[in-house]
Specification:
alpha+beta; 14-stranded mixed β-sheet; ten-stranded mixed β-sheet; 9 helices; 20% helix
Length: 444
């Protein structure tokens, strides 16, 4: 081989090597995607959901004179909700003071109730208003909507949007909504009678009769904590692990597994000028949707935000059939059936969520629960005052897994009540050993 041929071959090899390295640089990808602060990563944990499937009511009522009948069947409640969502709300009128509502035509009305208050921004996402910006204070929160025909509105339907204590915040004309359709939906199935009860912060409707509910055997799978690293850390490559892969940190933020609960803390929140206010409910929904974090049938369940505060807690809870799921054991086990996001100055500062993925696999027979009035009376007799109870609801009790090799849990129907922003089992609270404290009010 002469010198010129050798030089030609060597040149070809160098050119090919250069092309190969250039392509490698162009198309190289790290294991995790990075993004600017506050951006959402393209990661899929489970699935995304539409807002109407996450933010939805749990009770639909028909008021007729002095009587109230309700449906908790999720299928019928959803059908009623869809009728409300198909309506076009126009002529919105705020009720800053004691303004008179349009006169009713007859004594029949229909109402849907959400488990927790919705902000105005969220209301505009789940219902159709004729204006993009409702021109009254943004601090208004609504958890129920009632419609009725009005004589003063030319027979048209009036929709009243009320806060959790039952106070009317504003009303509107409901177009494209028919009373006959609402009546047909709510009277199908087996509606049961309800009574209204005023608690410390909320007006609730409690069933007047005993309620029979089937229990469930639930199978669960464990999610890997590592799958949340690209979601919660801006630079996953610089995250280190200790404690047998139960804690991850980048030197500032920390992701930890506590039993079957994910706990994330980001203490480095921007200070100084507060960011523009952003609806925490919508931000939470969009954040979880961005990485397809809905591992179960989660439903919006609560918001805790002090007035003029940049901090807000938003809760989503698993719903099993017609009822929500609770765990009342010691912290952090209440998050066994929840996702809670905490926002501070527009940034995610905390997240607590279950690492269990539930699947109901069998019914466990019917359990009869006391009527709402009876259970409330039992709480009174146990030393609890109505003025200290924030909310009451029927739900499923889910105990914490006790054996690592067992992947099944029982979801048992029970009454629950809320005090100091925490849910308790009414059955446990009314057991004889609780007794009455010297203060005159028992403590769970």
């Amino acid at each position: 081989m002469n010198r010129e041929v050798f030089k030609s071959i060597l040149l070809i090899i160098l050119v090919l090597a250069s092309v190969s390295m250039t392509l490698n640089i162009w198309f190289y990808r790290t294991n995790y995607e990075e993004g600017p602060s506050g951006s959402f990563k393209q990661v899929a944990i489970a699935e995304s959901k539409s807002i109407r499937d996450v933010i939805r009511p749990t009770l639909a009522l028909k008021h007729s004179g002095s009587e109230t009948f309700g449906q908790t069947d999720s299928t019928l409640v959803t059908k009623t909700y869809r009728l409300f969502q198909n309506a076009h709300f126009t002529d919105v009128f705020p009720l800053y003071e004691k303004n008179n509502l349009p006169k009713r035509s007859g004594s029949v009305s229909y109402e849907i109730l959400f488990p927790a208050p919705l902000t105005l921004d969220t209301l505009q996402k789940v219902f159709q208003f004729n204006q993009n910006d409702l021109s009254f204070p943004r601090k208004i929160q609504v958890d129920r909507v009632e419609v009725y025909p009005s004589t003063s509105a030319g027979g048209r339907l009036i929709a009243i949007f009320r806060s959790k204590d039952g106070r009317a915040e504003f009303y509107a004309v409901a177009n494209n909504l028919k009373i006959d359709h609402l009546n047909q939906t709510l009277t199908s199935g087996e509606p049961i009678p309800y009574s209204k009860q005023k608690l410390s912060e909320k007006s609730v409707y409690l069933p007047l009769e005993n309620t029979k509910i089937k229990g469930w055997l639930v199978y669960y799978e464990n999610m890997q904590l590592e799958s949340f690293i690209p979601v919660l850390f801006q630079d996953p490559k610089n995250v280190f692990v200790n404690r047998n892969k139960t804690t991850f940190s980048d030197g500032t933020s920390q992701l930890e597994k506590s039993g079957n609960i994910l706990q994330f803390v980001n203490p480095e929140i921007s200070s100084g000028i507060a960011q523009a206010p952003e609806d925490p409910i919508m931000r939470s929904y969009q954040y979880i949707n961005s990485f397809k974090g809905w591992t179960d049938d989660f439903i919006y369940d609560g918001i805790n935000q002090a007035e003029n505060s940049q901090r807000a807690d938003v809760d989503f809870r698993i719903q099993l059939g017609n009822y929500r799921v609770y765990n009342t054991e010691y912290y952090p086990n209440p998050y066994l059936s929840m996702i809670e996001l905490t926002w501070n100055n527009g940034e995610l500062s905390n997240m607590n969520r279950t690492l269990l993925n539930f699947r109901p696999i069998g019914e466990q027979g019917l359990i009869t629960l006391d009527s709402g009035e009876t259970m409330l009376q039992k709480l009174r007799e146990a030393g609890f005052s109505v003025r200290t109870i924030q909310d009451m609801a029927i739900g499923y009790r889910l105990n914490h897994p006790q054996e690592e090799n067992s992947h099944s849990l029982r979801a048992t129907p029970d009454w629950f009540f809320k005090m100091n922003n925490r849910w308790y089992s009414a059955t446990d609270a009314t057991l004889p050993q609780h007794g009455k404290e010297k203060s005159g009010e028992a403590q769970p």
